[in-house]
Amino acid sequence: MVADKGKKTKVAPEEETEHVDDELVLSIEKLQEAQDELEKVNEEASDKVLEVEQKYNEIRRPVYLKRNDVIKSIPDFWLTAFLSHPALCDTLSEEDQKIFKYLDSLDVEDFKDLKSGYSITFNFNENPYFEDTKLTKTFTFSDEGTTKITGTVVKWKQGMAAAVNGVNHEKKGNKRPFAHQSFFSWFSETEQKDLIELQDEVGEIIKEDLWPNPLKYFNNDADEEDSDGDEDDEEENGDDDDEQDEEEDDDDAE
């Protein structure tokens, strides 16, 4: 018997499914190859960006030192910058502010490879509060993603530790009550797990926000920018209200 040429040979559902699965597997393998290639390019790009950052970090360093020399001639520069900063202002108690008047300079320095950490150093003139002339907090990042934090234990002069630190009020969650605890305890807070988040926050704010341009906060430019933004919003809202009133008047006239 001759087979009907007009009829197509039926493919078993199992064979069709296997064919689709093979195509899907092949497509996923090709997609993975493309992703692996992109990852390689991204790694090369990251290395190149890091090289550029390292180069310009070395160029910036003497400029930062020059800037520090100029800042030393401005009375209470860092105290004013801290108090004008929206986040850091709450970290200084009244006693801390008195101590900050003896602050000679502040320095933030990245490790040479940039990615493994940084240190924040406060240099003080001789003062009646503690023996140290240098207080440093260091953040070291490991390849595993953990952060090792070390800091100077302040050597308070007789009777000054209690006077500065005052009463230690109860903490709420992971945040300490800055208004009642000295900023200087931040240097020695390296082990308590519930304070790690806070340490990173203060360190990052100083490094990423205050240090690049402290003049902005010394001059209160940040507040002026916020004020300008609020005024613009008010003007826009006022214009919208005027337009709405005009539309309502037109509707009444009709």
Any overview of this molecule?
- By secondary structure, this protein is of the alpha+beta class.
- It folds into 2 domains: 27-73; 76-167 and 180-221, Nucleosome assembly protein (Arylsulfatase, C-terminal domain, 2-Layer Sandwich), CATH 3.30.1120.
- The protein is 52% helix and 11% strand.
- It contains 7 helices and 4 strands; from the N terminus they run H-H-H-E-E-E-E-H-H-H-H.
- The protein has helices spanning 13-71, 77-84, 94-100, 160-165, 196-210, 214-218, 221-253, and strands spanning 103-110, 117-124, 134-141, 147-151.
- The protein has a 4-stranded antiparallel sheet.
- A hairpin with a 6-residue loop joins strand 1 (103-110) and strand 2.
- The longest helix has 59 residues, at 13-71.
- The model is unreliable at 167-179 (pLDDT under 50).
- GO terms for molecular function: histone binding.
Strand order of the largest sheet: 1-2-3-4
Distance between the termini: 88 Å
Reading the helices and strands in chain order gives HHHEEEEHHHH
The CATH architecture category of the largest domain equals 2-Layer Sandwich
CATH topology of the largest domain: Arylsulfatase, C-terminal domain
Overall pLDDT: 81
Helix content: 40-55%
Structural class label: alpha+beta
The value of Rg in angstroms is 31 Å
CATH homologous superfamily (4th level) name of the largest domain: Nucleosome assembly protein
| Number of separate domains | 2
GO biological process, one term: double-strand break repair via homologous recombination
Coiled coil: 24-55
Keywords: Chaperone, Coiled coil
Region (Disordered): 1-20, 213-254
